[in-house]
Specification:
The protein is of the alpha/beta class. It is 24% helix and 23% strand. The model has no long low-confidence stretch (mean pLDDT 95). Its EC number is 6.3.3.2.
């Protein structure tokens, strides 16, 4: 399927989810993450969900990361440049929703992309090859291109993968893993 068709399909599927389902599936995704071979890493980037878009509640993953004393990094988006700035989450971090209802840090200790070892990625859809579909602005492709090649890219989804996204572009950066409530998909196995 084309990205445009997948965006429509998965926005509709997410819209139909009940709050209780979102919470229980988000918890299941966080529990699945515990079995990934990532816990020797230190710098973890995570997104805060856009509640109105019924995104995965990453609060459960945040608790796991904090409990394991990981350095947690959040981003702030610049919609003029389509770039993200990354900040260390501390006790003093103030989170504010931007005009698109994305919760973001106001400011803080900036962290360079090259320092980040694991990135949890929001997405609308993904396929069996690890290709992903987001909202279409390219923020994450830009960000991931700035990371080191060995940075682990982990998608989070409520749903199973599609067979194939047919309009993948050269600059699209695939996932290493995707976690849904029932399984972990490993795309780096050759």
């Amino acid at each position: 399927m084309l990205k445009k068709e997948l965006r429509l399909k998965y926005k509709t599927l997410r819209k139909a989810l009940h709050e209780n389902d979102i919470e229980s599936m988000s918890l299941a995704i966080a529990n699945q993450a515990l079995s990934l071979p990532i816990w020797d890493k230190t710098y973890f980037h995570i997104f805060l969900p856009i509640a109105s878009q019924k995104e995965i509640n990453t609060e459960f993953l945040l608790h796991i990361l904090a409990g394991k004393d990981k350095e947690i990094i959040l981003s702030k988006s610049d919609f003029e440049t389509l770039k993200m700035m990354h900040f260390l989450l501390t006790d003093n971090t103030r989170i504010v929703k931007n005009e698109y209802q994305i919760p973001e840090p106001v400011s803080g200790i900036e962290v360079p992309s090259k320092q980040i070892e694991v990135v949890f990625i929001p997405l609308l859809a993904y396929d069996k090859l690890g290709n992903r579909v987001g909202y279409g602005k390219g923020f994450y492709d830009q960000f991931l291109s700035e990371c080191r090649p060995e940075t682990l890219k982990i998608g989070l989804s409520f749903f199973d993968p599609e067979d194939q996204i047919t309009d993948v572009f050269e600059n699209d950066i695939p996932l290493d893993y995707c976690i849904n409530p029932y399984a972990i998909f490993n795309f780096s196995i050759t």
